[in-house]
Every structure is written in C-alpha cells, then in structure tokens.
Design a protein that fits this description.
Pfam families: LtrA. InterPro entries: Low_temperature_requirement_A. The longest helix has 32 residues. This protein is mainly α and 416 residues long. The protein is globular and about 65 Å long. It folds into two domains: 174 residues, no CATH class; 189 residues, Up-down Bundle (I/LWEQ domain), CATH 1.20.1410.
C-alpha cells in the first residue's frame, strides 16, 4: 500500500534549519513558479505588441509590471526558505498568492493601455496581504523573530494601502513618480524588518536552486513565445477565407509566408541565444554568492530582477523580430535588434558583476562586458533583422565557447 502524504491542518510556524541536508524545492514551490510565469508571459506579450507597433513606451509598462511580479515572487521564495511548514493553512495562503498573480496577469493589458488597472492592483493586493497573513503566523510561532515578523506585516500592509490609494491618481507624470516612491517603500520594508528584529534564517542551497529553477522556467517561456510566433508564419493559408476575399493575419494562424531563408536565420539565432543564456547562467554554482556576507546576499537577490526581466524581454524581442521578417511590424530592424541586444547586455553584465564580486577579481567580468559591447555594436550597425538575430546569437554562443575553453584549461591545470 502506498504511503499517504498526511498534511496537518495547522502546525507551529518555526524557522527551518538553514543547514538542513538535502533541502530542495518542494512541489508546491515548483507549482508556484509555474503560475507566476503566466503573469510574466502576459507582460512579455504586451511588450512584444508594443515593440511591433512602434509603441516603445511599452518598455516602461513592462518594467512596472515586472517589478510587481518579481517582488511578490522573491518575497515568497525567501519566506518559504525560512518558514515553509507545509500545513494546510500554509498551502491555502500560497494558493492565494498564486491566484493574485493570475488576477494581476489578467489586468496587464489594461495597465499597458491606461497606466492603471484595478485588476493588477487587486491581484497585487491579494498576493501581498496573503504574505501579511504568513508573517503574522511567524510572529506567533517564532518568538525570537517576532519583531521582524511584525515589522514585515505592518510595513507590507501600509505600503499596500498606498498602492490601493494610488488608483485615485491620474496623469502619466504623477503615476510614474508615485510608482517610484512606492517601489522605494517596498524595498525599505525588508531592510527595516531585518534591521529591527534580526535577520530571518534561510537555506543558501535552497535559495540558489529556487533562483535557478525560476530562470529555467522563464527561459522556457521565451522558447514558447518564439515558437508561437514562428507557428503563425508557417501556418497554411485559410483557403476558404482567401476565396472569399478575406485576409487573415499570419499571427492569428490564418496563413504566413512559410519557411523562408530569413526565418531560418532568425530561428537559428534565437536558439543560439536561448541555449547560450542557459549556459552562461549555469556556468557556475550560485550558492557561493549567497550566505557569504549580507551585502553579497542582498545584491544577488535584488540583481535578479534584471536577470529575470532581461530573459523575458528577449522572448518579446524575438517574437517582434519575426513580425519584422513577415513585414507585419511598424518597427525597424535596428530598433528590434536593440530590443534584443539590450536585455542580453544587461543579463551578461549583471551576471558578470555578481561573479566578479564573488571572485573578488574584476577580470571575471571582462567576458561579460565584451559580450555586451559586441551585441550592442551589432544592433548599432543595423543589419536586417534575421542577420542581426543570427549575429547576436553567434556572439552569445561565442561567450559560451570562451567559457568552455577557459574551463578546460583550468581542468588541465588541476582545477586552479
């Protein structure tokens, strides 16, 4: 007879052992990540639309939405590393955060169109207030960290009330300014809580795995977005619609130009980019960036907003490049090339700086800086979109080759 996974209704929420052996991401955490990627995909789809139509202000909208998604994900990831008690109430509150992310995803188009969205704010409020409930449980179950937990709970509640009040504001200038102020307030809450009541425990290997798995899932979203864009191009024309004199957009699956040399170059470059981004992220174990000094730990945690956002933006740029190839875009090849090159440069530089800080050697960041310069130079030259994507893909693959050669040389020298 198979063993049942018996989950208690409620158990004391005390801290988990930060040195616990074999600590890995739980099935609930994996499900949590998968649901959050839906919100990321929604934001990336709106960015793709903005790039293709030449509405480049969508980049700012993407940044606003992505902060909300990342902030809610990151807060839960670190909380779970410290206090995952896996009882029924904990699971239900986790489901509430997941539901909030889906509600936020549903409101993303409105936010891009109007700069405000009740659905986005409601979804964010649901996510954050569920976190308040979790911190109140910690305040009751972990007496040594009660001050920390209560500071989190009160701080999140106050800032969330301000986000809701922000719905009454109008005008892009006022909206952007208030957003910046509230982002600073959000970031200040963890700093204040950990200063007042002492730092909460976390498991370095568990956190490193959580960030790594989320990176993989976002890369998967990039592949999905790219494949869907190519599918629209390869779709056979709608014979009945053509006979009736109706034109059906290729992106809707009604018919594209089929497999062209340009599309082959673009697909090849896109695959090189995605595979190389994975390799560059996992070329080292990131656990050495966590738990070795408070500053380094916070830098690793917060810098990943740029890593995750850059990966998602790559997917949007690749889909926009397909539109350019199919002449269904108001954007130029150069603008789309920059939309692709900039996130790759950011991704490379952020990882390069983190690795250099961990090694305490600025030379570690030289390959990353070189890659950033090369991909931006390709975009500046302004070749046609398929050639630009291929060249950028070759550049990222070149960075992987450089790493492999260096690694092999070190192995030959005995791992020094």
């Amino acid at each position: 007879m198979s063993a049942l996974n018996l989950v208690p209704l409620l158990r004391p929420m005390g801290p988990r052992d930060p040195h616990e052996a074999h600590r890995v991401a739980s099935p609930l955490e994996l499900f949590f990540d998968l649901v959050f990627v839906v919100a990321i995909a929604s934001a990336a789809a709106e960015l793709h639309h903005g790039l293709s139509t030449g509405h480049y202000e969508s980049v700012l909208g993407f940044g606003l939405v992505f902060f909300a998604i990342w902030w809610a994900w990151m807060n839960y990831a670190w909380f779970a590393s410290a206090y995952d008690c896996d009882d029924v109430v904990y699971r239900l509150l986790t489901f509430a955060i997941m539901a909030g992310s889906l509600l936020l995803a549903a409101g993303v188009p409105d936010l891009f169109d109007d700069g405000q969205s009740v659905a986005v704010v409601s979804g964010y409020a649901l996510m954050r207030l569920a976190m308040v409930a979790l911190w109140l449980r910690v305040a009751r179950g972990d007496t040594p960290h009660r001050t920390t937990a209560m500071t989190y709970a009160v701080g999140i509640t106050v800032v969330q009330a301000l986000w809701i009040a922000r719905l009454a504001l109008h005008g892009s200038g006022l909206l952007y300014a208030s957003f910046g102020v509230l982002v600073l307030a959000e970031v200040a809450v963890p700093w204040l809580a950990e200063q007042r009541g002492g730092p909460t425990p976390f498991h370095p290997h568990h956190i490193a795995e959580r960030y790594s798995l989320f990176t993989i899932i976002v890369l998967g979203e990039v592949i999905l977005a790219s494949v869907q864009a190519v599918q629209g191009v390869l779709a056979k024309p709608d014979v009945a619609g053509s006979a009736a004199g109706h034109s059906v957009p290729a992106a809707a699956g009604g018919g594209g130009s089929g497999l062209t040399p340009g599309l082959v170059l673009l697909a090849t470059g896109g695959l090189l980019i995605v595979f190389s981004l994975w390799w560059l992220y996992f070329k080292r174990d990131h656990v050495d960036l966590i738990g070795h000094g408070r500053t380094m730990t916070w830098a690793f945690s917060y810098a990943h907003v740029l890593v995750f956002a850059a990966v998602a933006a790559v997917g949007a740029a690749l889909a926009a490049a397909v539109d350019v190839v199919e002449h269904q875009s108001a954007a130029s090849s150069r603008s789309v090339a920059f939309a692709l090159a900039v996130p790759i440069a950011v991704y490379s530089l952020v990882l390069g700086v983190l690795h250099a800080a961990a090694d305490r050697d600025p030379r570690t960041a030289v390959p990353a800086a070189t890659l950033a310069i090369v991909v931006l130079a390709v975009a500046a030259v302004g070749p046609q979109a398929p050639v630009a994507v291929l060249l950028i893909g070759l550049a990222t693959a070149g960075a992987v080759v450089q790493h492999v050669l260096v690694a092999q040389r070190r192995l030959a020298q005995g791992g020094r």
